[in-house]
Give the backbone structure.
Amino acid sequence: MAAISYHGTAFINTEGQPHDEVFFVEDLAHQCGHIIFNTLTLHTTDFLKINKETPMSGLTGVVYDNRSVYGALHGLFTYISILHCLTKCIKLEVFNPSQCVEAFSRIGFFMRKFEIDLNYMNMPQIYTSKGQQIYDGALASFEQVKKEFGADFKDKCYDNQPYIFNYHLFQKINPTF
């Protein structure tokens, strides 16, 4: 986790999870993405026209979404960070072949979440011009990853995934990936 109260610190929790280089690239990108976003958006009124604590459920009608609008925008940014790092490592051939399979499965997991949140956050009326730039950048990043890597994960099943990706569970329902 990364928290504004411990700004600049990323906490990595490996308890109960197998962890290799792919795990650490993803989690470091995720946690450091939080730090970058918190710094970038310190003055939230520069990015949002509405109160940052506005519940997403009130904007989207999705009653189980308990995030604030700021939290959802924050999520878009962390998806960008995670996907950039994982795809860059694949392109640079940093991972061995089995780790590439894991990286592709993680990319697919985040792309599904990313697509849902892009749809939820497609509300230009909530953004200032700077906020709209973040949204537009997120959409462009999503489209780029989908174009380059979509064939590598599009037919995979993620139905058994908890909120945090679990590669072992993924392998159970995608044994030939």
Notes: The chain has one domain: 19-173. The two ends are 30 Å apart (CA to CA). The CA atoms of residues 96 and 140 lie 28 Å apart. The mean pLDDT is 92.
